[in-house]
Amino acid sequence: MGVSEVPKVFTPQTPIWCPGCGDFGVLAALKKALNDLEIPPHETILVGGIGCSGHIHNDLLVYGYHSLHGRLLPTAIGIKLANPRLTVIAAGGDGDGYAIGGNHFLHALRRNPSIVYLVMNNGTYGLTKGQPSPTAQIGFEGTKEIPFEPILTALSIRSTTFVARGFSGNQVQLQFVIKEAIQHANAGKGFAFLDVLSPCVTYNDTYAEWRKSTVDMNADKSFDPTNRALVFERVLNTLQEGKIPTGLLYKGESPSFESMQLKDPASPIATQDLTPAGKIEEFKKLIARYR
Amino acid sequence: MSSTQTTEVSEPRVVHLEDLKVMVGGQGGDGTLTVINLLSHALKQIGAYTYDTRNVLSRIRGGHADGVLRASVRPILSIGDGLDVLVAFDEEAVEVAREQLLDHAVVIYDNSHSQLKTVLKPTVKVYSAKFSEIAGLELKKTLLKNTVSFAVLCRALGLADQLAEEAINWRYARRGGDVLQSNLQALKIGFRLADQLGVKPSISFPKTEPKQGLIQITGDEAVGMGFIAGGGRFYAGYPITPASEILEYLQANLPKFNGVALQAEDEISAINMALGASLAGARAMVATSGPGQDLMTEGLGQAGMAEIPLVIVEVQRAGPSTGMPTKHEQSDVNHVVFAGHGDFPRLVVAPADASDCFYLTVDALNLAEKYQLPVFILMDQALGQNTQTVPEFDFSRVNIDRGKLLTQADLNRISVYKRYEFTEDGVSPRTIPGTPDGFFQVTGNEHNEWGFVSVDRTNRAKIMRKRMLKVEAAKKDMPRGHVYGDQDARVGFISYGSNLGPILEAMEQLGKQGVKTKFLLLRSIYPLLEEVQEFLESVNTAFVVESNLTGQLAGLIRREYGYADKIVRINKYDGSVFRPSDIVSQTLSQLPRNGGE
Ligand SMILES: Cc1ncc(C[n+]2csc(CCOP(=O)(O)OP(=O)(O)O)c2C)c(N)n1
Ligand code: SF4
Ligand SMILES: [Mg+2]
User: For the whole model, what pTM was predicted?
Assistant: First the structure.
């Protein structure tokens, strides 16, 4: 077989979302960002969660993994540590990330691994037919719970390095924050957390409401995304005015998880030569203290 | 001297033992285990094989704690029966040990807090001294009572002072000048006390040259070493007794080989991190005990369904729920064999001693990648935490087989690449991200050959069979068991894990009583292999020995092969390991009247 005949692999699928679902906008922006940044597809892995949003990894020609419900962050961290050269993008739902995966979310923020985490936030459990998620507004489907605010949570953890929010109804801004997130992670600067308002037209159609209430914080030139305390204050105030802050909200510095954990991030665990032959002397050193 | 007293003055008769059992007991956190550690090192220098165990509560301080060291001229894998020497730092330790003390036993008692009240056999020799008080007064550190008592212990066993000193050097040289010096001083004080007490060697152990090529190691550490040698480079865990030592071992040693050992936020995270690392191309492992395995069960099913290689070490402890964290049990057989919803393939191997822990970890890594499924290494508290003397591991025997892992060069030779391609043995070639033409879709949803979600009925039936086929295919590579004892015996034992030692000793004792036995040590628990049926065919009675209440292994064997009329259970579930005498008495009381013939 000639070299020119590239092996045939899977053909990306056509999304199966309801017409008008916000996730289409997320997919489009993600594709555009990856293309514009010329990220090699074979060095990219997209880790999906379980939910409507968790179909996204089927629709691009990159490596795709469908993780367990809520477990995409530990999985993505494992991938990144095994091979820091990869572009690792975890993309899941708000139920996936903020409810069942909430504990992993906190620890990923704290650890700062250089991966992108994109949450398609629709305030509901789309796939299981419209139950309230942790970000659902009071009253949605009769919920009597106070909504979770992931941006404030992310800002409150001192080792976070990238916090942003997009809206799938605003492609220009969404492409911008996704590109920034990918560049942040691929530069090894740490965890790029991106909450994307992505309406579920079937169970919680919030397009009109979010068009009105979203505010692009970057439009105000006095907004300094490197000052954590001020960002926290501005975000909190905006929320209290009944508005939703969006844009690149915070960028800071903290050592990345992989730089702290790996002895030699430049030589990935995943591609190491494992044959024991050359290592026998090293192995014997392990035995010495048991003699 | 007022601080010391002995019960008798006449010259003691020296008892010569080729098998010596010493218990050191006190309160948790007071360092009693260091005495075991020091003695074990000293005895190894005179050619002994050692085996030691600890009995502690999970709190760090307070509560009774003890360690038992057994030394023998032969290899041993059990604490045996009876005690020759007891070092007790409080009354409770004497009460705990009393029943086990043999007629010729020597008791070294710390009477800093109270005089010994427990009534012992008159033949037992007792040396009492205020070890803690003296250590506190002379060295300003009561904990040094351990080293003080170690000196007296060595004298009672007739071990040369120099051997004791070497043991102190071996243990404390790394810790730096002050620690080493104060321990050497404590040793001197101990020798002085022994002189004052008139301690004479009353028990002796044969002195030979130290045996070459032997190591003293726990099963947990051996698993850690096997993981590194077998190419394991990614480990994630969450602290849990009795598996934490694997995490600690790998955190200390894996970075030397450019690998990483992480402490996750919980076991759910740990197993998913390992799945991610494996998917990316690393040889990955997690280790836990029952409660952690509960949380890992979700990830276990994912490994089975998505066909991601993974090794899971399950070091069993006494359950259910939080149970008795530090206590021994073997009650997770059902858990590892049946855990998880739906039907999916898995393998379960079971090492029996520290050597086996090393080699089977390498095998498990190969099996996981060759058959792309989760492989359990089923252990138990005694196997994981007891220190054993075993031959040095032979690293040249380590062989790495990554199975059907395609490189770009392999991909150049094929026209279509499907991650879940149907194949004869059920194993589909895999690739790792970064390979230019190896794109995959990997999922825990039911899927077609491409890895796309599918509920097609024909595909479903076919791909279910494909995955399960791998268990059949793996049988040829599963570790075979060992048969011990008299080939012609009609009375048999079937067991696994740390029961190996006690059963072999019980067989010897039964042999002396005229009961001929043989023993099938299982090393593959799932699937069970033909060897089980062959063995059952060859005996009239098969005693299945296991540390649990309900006879989980016996149930598994009956489920697979029947033979309900031949299978008799021997169980123990009080949190302690089998002693040979437990097995002898349960065998004799349950042996059919015709002696099993
Ligand atoms: C352990 C577990 N519990 C429950 C489910 C069922 N389940 C599937 S998707 C989902 C919620 C999806 O909501 P979200 O993550 O917000 O994704 P969306 O569908 O809204 O994109 C649930 C509860 C599951 N798959 N696994
Ligand atoms: S149910 Fe909602 S989230 Fe799911 S595809 Fe339809 S619109 Fe999108
Ligand atoms: Mg949702």
Answer: 0.96
- pLDDT of A94 > 90? The answer is yes
Is any atom of ligand 2 closer than 6 Å to the C-beta of A122?
yes
From the CA of A206, how far away is ligand 3's center (Å)? 12
Q: Determine, yes or no, domain membership for A281.
A: no
**Contacts across the A-B interface (CB distance below 8 Å):** 219
CA dihedral (B580, B585, B587, B589) in degrees, to 10, reads 180
Residues, Cβ < 5 Å to ion ligand 3: A 93-95, 122
- Whole domain around residue A142: which residue ranges? 22-265
Nearest residue of A to residue B222, measured between CA atoms: A287
Query: What are the extents of the domains in chain B?
Result: 5-204, 218-396, 482-590
Quick one: CA torsion of A156, A162, A164, A170, rounded to 10 degrees? Answer: 180
Pocket test for ligand 2, best of A52, A131, A196, A207 (most atoms within 8 A of CB): A52
CATH architecture of the domain formed by B5-204: 3-Layer(aba) Sandwich (3.40)
**Across the interface, do B395 and A276 touch by the CB < 8 Å criterion?**
yes
**Nearest Cβ partner of B264 from A57, A74, A267?**
A74
Percentage of residues of chain B with pLDDT beyond 90: 92
Beta bridge partners of A200: A204
Is A12 a member of any domain?
no
Mean pLDDT of A153-159: 98
**The pLDDT of residue B9 is above 70:** no
**CATH code of residue A179:** 3.40.50.970
Assembly ipTM:
0.97
Considering the domain B218-396 in this protein, what is its CATH number? 3.40.50.970
Per-residue pLDDT, B592: 81
Max CA-CA distance within chain A? 73
Number of domains present in the structure of chain A: 1
Q: Which residues 302-321 of B have a C-beta within 8 angstroms of A?
A: 302, 306
The alpha carbon of residue A93 and the mean position of all alpha carbons in its chain are separated, in whole angstroms, by 10
Mean pLDDT of B277-288: 98
A278 occurs within a structural domain: no
Pick the CATH number of B482-590 from 1.10.1060.10, 3.40.50.920, 3.40.50.720, 3.30.390.50: 3.40.50.920
| Residues B496-516, mean pLDDT to the nearest whole number | 97
Of A73, A7, A71, residue with least CA distance to A42: A7
Asked whether the domain spanning B482-590 has the same topology as the one spanning B218-396, the reply is: yes
Q: How far apart are CA A81 and CA B460, in angstroms?
A: 34
CA A92 / ligand 1 centre spacing (Å): 10
Q: Are the CB atoms for A184 and A251 separated by under 8 Å?
A: yes
Atom 11, ligand 1: which residue's CA is nearest? A125
Q: What does the pLDDT look like over B104-143, one tens digit per residue?
A: 999 999 999 999 999 999 999 999 999 999 999 999 999 9
Residue B2: pLDDT above 70? no
Cis peptide before A225 (omega within 30 of 0): no
Set of chain B residues whose Cβ sits within 8 Å of the Cβ of A83: 280-282, 432-434
Distance CA B86, CA B65 (A): 13
Nearest to A78 among B234, B265, B415 (CB): B234
- Tens of pLDDT, residue by residue over B307-332, are 999 999 999 999 999 999 999 999 99
